[in-house]
């Protein structure tokens, strides 16, 4: 474990573009309520048990806390092998005539002694939207490890018992989060608002499960306080507010960079290839100046690989990051492919779409005509528990005027088929129309 010590969806109107970030999926094993205090998990458990009304999990979403674990602790020397030309060509075949608009990195670990790696545009660098929240999680777990380097139980206690009070840094965000009142046994779902209270664990779950930008910004703020106050942390909400009110923007910006970027380099990454440089809310970015955010498909795969090896901060941190990515509610985008229903999927997605007026074009979700970024990272263990197949994918695209959520879902079907059978079929090739793909796979996408 490396120790770091740091001190001291609308339609665009005339001449107006629409830039919309969106990403949502629920994570963490549903039997984790007692350990973490994440209220949403208790609701999911009750729904699965038939005690409450709601949508149940597919078979792949039912692994227990003990079953969601790191798979490569004994292969910490494993690095990405040389690209497999045949595997790369097969994935590119799925992309059809859109191959120039897609970039990917794929690592097949189904035979750990003979891993296979495929890539295309692997060094393409772009803003990956909410996928960057992985780096917020990395920064927080690194800060916790620096506070309590030899005391994992104390880190768990801080995660569960430290209360975060939402303030202006949550403004504004359209993502809703599930808040569970264990006394009244009432579940509410709405965007975070100033005054909302939750544990660090709950904010982490809201950031990963609902992809709440408000939760992500609150966690960046909290991690900066960990860095600033060190052994005095946790501090009261009033002390934190006073620090941000009385500290210069330049000093806050410097602390933000150290908070988010030193953990990236400590994990062995190059900041020219992967970086989260700013808050996820407008208020956060006004209060604290930041820098650009981006990643490449290759570095995202390396991030997932090091997580599986227990090399992101340490074994405890890597395991909890993986659990936070475990899909345990309604699956979306890449993760929503029915072909993955039997699989355990560890997933994060992010999108940015932008529209401008265009004759005959209607601005729809994930259909931008100026920008239509869709980014997905996933680890797939199939079938869940047995793990006959184990692979990870990082996928980036910018295909204008086309439903990128449907296309990523389609690619998930094709890639899973390729890994499990070694074959590519025309039913999952992106050269087909959206209507043909929907008929061929029987899918629905929000």
Structure notes:
It is a single chain. This protein has helices at about 35, 40-50, 85-95, 135-145, 150-160, 200-210, 215-230, 235-245, 250-265, 280-285, 295-310, 315-325, 405-420, 435-440, and strands at about 20, 100-110, 115-120, 165, 175-180, 185-190, 195-200, 345-355, 370-380, 390-400. By secondary structure, the protein is an alpha+beta fold. The strands form three sheets. A six-stranded antiparallel sheet has the order 1-8-9-10-2-3, with helices on both faces. A two-stranded antiparallel ribbon has the order 4-7. It is about 35% helix and about 15% strand.
Mean pLDDT: 90
The stretches of 5 or more residues where confidence is low (pLDDT under 50) are 5-25
- From the spread of the alpha carbons, the general shape counts as globular
H and E order: EHHHEEHHEEEEHHHHHHHEEEHH
């Amino acid at each position: 474990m490396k120790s770091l010590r740091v001190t001291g969806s609308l339609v665009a109107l005339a001449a107006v573009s629409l830039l919309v970030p969106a990403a949502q999926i629920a994570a963490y094993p549903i039997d984790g309520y007692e350990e973490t205090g994440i209220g949403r998990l208790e609701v999911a458990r009750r729904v699965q048990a038939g005690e409450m009304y709601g949508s149940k999990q597919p078979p792949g979403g039912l692994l227990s806390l003990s079953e969601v674990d790191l798979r490569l602790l004994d292969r910490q020397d494993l690095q990405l092998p040389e690209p497999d030309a045949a595997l790369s060509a097969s994935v590119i075949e799925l992309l059809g005539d859109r191959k120039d608009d897609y970039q990917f990195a794929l690592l097949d670990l189904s035979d750990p002694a003979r891993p296979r790696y495929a890539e295309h545009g692997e060094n393409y660098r772009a803003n990956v939207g909410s996928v960057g929240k992985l780096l917020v999680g990395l920064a927080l777990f690194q800060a916790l490890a620096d506070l309590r380097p030899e005391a994992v139980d104390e880190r768990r206690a801080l995660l569960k018992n430290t209360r975060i009070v939402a303030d202006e840094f949550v403004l504004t965000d359209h993502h809703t989060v599930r808040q569970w009142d264990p006394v009244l046994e009432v579940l509410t779902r709405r965007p975070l608002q100033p005054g909302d209270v939750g544990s660090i664990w709950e904010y982490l779950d809201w950031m990963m499960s609902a992809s709440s930008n408000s939760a992500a910004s609150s966690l960046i703020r909290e991690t900066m306080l960990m860095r600033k106050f060190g052994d005095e942390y946790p501090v009261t909400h009033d002390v934190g507010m006073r620090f941000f009110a009385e500290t210069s923007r330049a000093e806050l910006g410097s602390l933000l960079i150290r908070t988010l970027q030193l953990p990236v380099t400590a994990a062995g990454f190059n900041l020219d290839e992967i970086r989260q440089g700013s808050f996820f809310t407008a208020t956060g970015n006004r209060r604290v100046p930041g820098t650009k955010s981006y990643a490449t498909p290759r570095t995202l795969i390396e991030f997932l690989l090091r997580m599986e090896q227990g090399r992101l901060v340490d074994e405890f941190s890597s395991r909890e990051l993986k659990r936070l990515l475990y899909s345990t509610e309604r699956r979306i985008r890449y993760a929503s492919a029915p072909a993955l229903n039997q699989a355990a999927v560890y997933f994060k997605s992010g999108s940015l779409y932008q529209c401008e007026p265009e004759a005959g074009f209607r601005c729809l979700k994930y259909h931008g005509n100026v920008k239509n970024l869709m980014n997905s990272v996933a680890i797939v263990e199939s079938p869940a528990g047995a793990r006959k197949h184990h692979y990870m994918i990082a996928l980036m695209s910018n295909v204008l005027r086309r439903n990128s959520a449907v296309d990523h879902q389609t690619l998930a079907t094709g890639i899973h088929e390729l890994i499990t059978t070694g074959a590519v079929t025309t039913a999952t090739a992106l050269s087909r129309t959206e209507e043909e793909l929907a008929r061929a796979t029987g899918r629905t996408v929000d």
